[in-house]
Amino acid sequence: MGKLNHLFGHKVFLIVAVFGAYVVPASTSFAAFVCSDEKYYPAVWHLEKGENGLEVFLGGKFARTGDPRVYVERASILVLQLHEGKDWARQPDLKCSGSECFKYERGCEVTLPELPISKERAAEINPHYQYQDVDEVAQSPSSCVEVGDDVWFVMGSTVCEGGGLVGGIGRFLPKTGKLEIRRPSVLMDSGASHLAYDGKSLWFGTERGCECLGAEPTHGLVRYDWEKDQVQTFAGTESGPCGFIVHDILADSGALWVATDLGLSRLDFQAETWRHYVPQPDKKPPMRETTCDATYKSLISFLPRGAADELIGDSFYAQFFSPLSRFRPNFVERYVRSMPPSRWGCEEMEFLASRMQNFKSLREELLKSPVPYGVHFDCIVRGFSGPGRGSDLDWRDFLLSKIGEPGGARAFSGALDSLKYFRGDAKVGDFLVQRLEKKPRLGDEALLLPVILGTAATPHLMNALDRQDLNEWDRNDVVEALERATHTFINPEGAEFTLPKDSDTLAYFEDPRLSMLSGREWSGESLSKIINHWKVWWGAHRAEYIHESAPSGRKKE
User: Fold this and answer.
1) How far is Cα 533 from Cα 531, in angstroms, rounded to an integer?
2) Torsions phi, psi of 448, nearest 5?
3) Structure pTM?
4) Percent of the chain as helix, strand, coil, to the nearest 5
5) CA gyration radius for the chain?
6) Region for residue 148 given its phi and psi (left: phi exceeds 0; alpha: psi -120 to 50; beta: otherwise)
7) Is the peptide bond before 341 cis (omega within 30 degrees of 0)?
């Protein structure tokens, strides 16, 4: 068996940050949110270039003692070997402890320069995230490869409690000290790890999930051409590895080996063709060539639809179906269409709705019969809704009719949320204003109104603030809605802070200067003081807003 390297020695600059991994003692038992669980998957965890050929370390449903990448006191890992590139054979099991089984990232014996970045610069690079809670944002390489005089490395962006990382790809030349970092968009919302270089392109895996068990798939395997500054992803195509989470990558002898949650894939660089394999360690040969479709069919046909053990999260079926619908939508389309409609659940309904070109198609295919109040309606709405639907007036009227039905406000929360895509729509504005005046609980409507009407929502929100029947939660929502509409913030002491009027009402709370104001709930005397300050504010600014009070936008239909 090939030598298993470990992360020891002061020269290794690499900080092991396996994005999406989690560290808990093996004996711990508590409820936690699950992003993905590979319990039923033919996963391959690790690859090594041994003396006699490629060595493959199995995980997922082949794991005997839990995931050693997390922590186990004693691990026994199944190992297969491709002997001299010809025949697969079972090897002796690897006996080890979790922290010393194998090196998850291939580091470099080169010390990189420090890579600090200010939170102001981090916010410029990636304004979607907040960095105000940290003094300095980390830029920790998650993997690197040394080729000749070059050191290539990758850094992945992720956001957890208390700060974040800024993603990027870099090249360092130790002889000259030259350092270059680039920021492809795929690393602005993903962790990155397991880097390989084929002489022309960099290959790395992407994932996300620092606050849940397992990892949430993002873009899967990514290819980056340094000379052309081009990114290639395989999600949504019929190419690339079968799996969604990349566990390891190894470039060797004109080929790229990719270990994933769904087995092993091999790219022949010259032929530009993929071949796929799934382990069968108790059979001969212990590795079987297959197709992605065959792998998907074998899993989707039996994965449980119920809750995943005692953990909080989606079912095993939903955990598989969701990334599969993004990575291989054509397969999912064929699969769902082959099912009798009576078996369609929430996942199938949401997927089919997302594929509809217009509301007419949605109505004819999924809304042919009366839709009962319940989870499947929300699944259809969630699947069909989006920015591109904001000009479909038939869809708008359908949503309004369903929300207006008896009991609809509670059963069709997804329909109400979908109205946010109809910005400036007078009919939606009128509908929300009427509900703001009469509905007993009005939090959702209050928060949605400034998204639709902008500053014109202000007089209606001030009127709602005068209602005597509102509870504390509703008053908090009206105050937050006023902040969104006016871009003004008032604390219990009466101090005001104002954002530019052209800032996005949906993203106002992402401004780092508002970290102490966003996401808070006022109560008791503090809330009463804030409301009184708003009424004083209204007396001084009423003339600026009153002429905008009538909903304005496209002509009502």
Assistant:
1) 5
2) -80, -30
3) 0.81
4) 35, 25, 40
5) 27
6) left
7) no
